[in-house]
């Protein structure tokens, strides 16, 4: 912590200072649905990975303050190399990215030379550079359906999303064994108890959840897809099986309805809050706009290789931006 940081503004002054710096730096603040409510409320744009990538590629701001995790900020830099991209906390990683070291992924690819690599965006820049097409949970369905059924595919790093797509589209993609620690923590037993407490309430689940949770869902989709479902479901209570900070957007849009987060293993733990996303705070957002650090830097050769698979995603996903829908389970 610098001497300056000991005198950080607080409360409304902090929000006003972030606003002042945003204007002074010609910065855009992008926020993921899993960010703390106070960050979502301050962001210029809140969205899922695909929407945030699209926004990063299109913005004419000079600075992108990315309130999400590192692979998302890396993606913004890959798509907008001329911009300064800052991440409030450089330790905001992702268990899926950690599960897929580039050297091991490279060896896996080399062991299956006839397979193409369809890779979830939750991975490192190096793994993107080793992939053919990137997908997000909101674009995976559209993209997979454009690939011929007889084309062998490696899908990484999320085995639950890959397994869900395999089951739904009768594919046999080879799956990398990674999981999201947040979605993995949902408990089937606790979900069934919650359903009994709210008879008739539908369940909306993210496809990063394991099959024993997804199998109880009335709707399976990306964060933006789940939000869309929340705006249209009939009834007054919805059970939400994804990172609970998304409920903030639901409560803002539909204050008269009741949104209940699905529980983790002991029924009331906080294990469904993403510990990486939670590292970003308003104070760190302020200091990163003030100092333009920590800053994302990517070596140009690597960036260009990774950009190919991201460009392919944006091209194949065109038409799905904002739809965010993997459909019903
Ligand atoms: S919620 Fe899961 S997939 Fe998303 S950033 Fe956190 S650990 Fe990664």
How does this structure look, described?
With 329 residues, this protein is α/β, with parallel strands linked by helices. The protein folds into three domains: 5-92 and 277-297, 3-Layer(aba) Sandwich (Rossmann fold), CATH 3.40.50.10800; 96-180, 3-Layer(aba) Sandwich (Rossmann fold), CATH 3.40.50.10800; 186-261, NadA-like (Rossmann fold), CATH 3.40.50.10800. Helices cover 42% and strands 14% of the residues. A four-stranded parallel β-sheet has the order 2-1-3-4, with helices on both faces. A four-stranded parallel β-sheet has the order 6-5-7-8. Strands 10-9-11-12 form a four-stranded parallel β-sheet, covered by helices on one side. Helix 14 links the parallel strand 11 (237-241) and strand 12. Helix 4 crosses helix 16. The protein is globular, with a radius of gyration of 20 Å. 49% of the residues are buried. Mean pLDDT is 92; it is low at 321-329. Keywords: 4Fe-4S, Cytoplasm, Iron, Iron-sulfur, Metal-binding, Pyridine nucleotide biosynthesis, Transferase. InterPro entries: NadA (IPR003473), NadA_sf (IPR036094), Quinolinate_synth_type2 (IPR023066). Its EC number is 2.5.1.72.
């Amino acid at each position: 912590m610098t001497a300056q940081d000991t005198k950080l503004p607080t409360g409304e002054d902090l929000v006003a200072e972030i606003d002042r710096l945003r204007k002074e730096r010609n910065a855009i603040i992008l926020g993921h649905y899993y960010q703390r409510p106070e960050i979502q409320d301050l962001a210029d744009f809140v969205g899922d990975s695909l929407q945030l990538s699209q926004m990063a590629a299109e913005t004419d701001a000079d600075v992108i303050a990315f309130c999400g995790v590192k692979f998302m900020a890396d993606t913004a830099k890959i798509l907008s190399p001329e911009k300064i991209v800052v991440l409030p906390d450089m330790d905001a990683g992702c268990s899926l990215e950690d599960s897929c070291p580039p050297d091991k992924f490279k060896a896996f690819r080399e062991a299956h030379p006839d397979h193409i690599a369809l890779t979830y965006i939750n991975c490192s820049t190096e793994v993107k550079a080793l992939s053919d097409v990137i997908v997000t949970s909101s674009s995976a369905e559209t993209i997979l359906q454009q690939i011929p059924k007889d084309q062998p595919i490696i899908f990484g790093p999320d085995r639950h999303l890959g397994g869900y797509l395999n089951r739904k589209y009768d594919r046999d993609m080879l799956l990398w064994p990674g999981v999201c620690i947040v979605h993995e923590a949902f408990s089937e037993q606790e979900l069934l108890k919650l359903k009994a407490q709210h008879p008739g309430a539908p369940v909306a689940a993210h496809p990063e959840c394991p099959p024993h949770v997804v199998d109880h869902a009335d709707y399976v989709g990306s964060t933006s897809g789940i939000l869309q479902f929340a705006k249209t479901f009939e009834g007054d209570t919805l059970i939400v099986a994804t990172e609970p900070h998304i409920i903030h957007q639901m409560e803002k849009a539909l204050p008269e309805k009741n949104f209940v987060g699905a529980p983790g293993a002991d029924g009331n733990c906080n294990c469904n809050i993403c510990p990486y996303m939670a590292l970003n705070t308003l104070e760190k957002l302020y200091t990163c706009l003030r100092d333009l650090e920590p800053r994302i830097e990517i070596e140009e050769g690597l960036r260009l290789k990774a950009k190919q698979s991201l460009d392919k995603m944006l091209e194949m996903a065109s038409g799905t931006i904002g739809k965010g829908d993997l459909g019903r389970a």
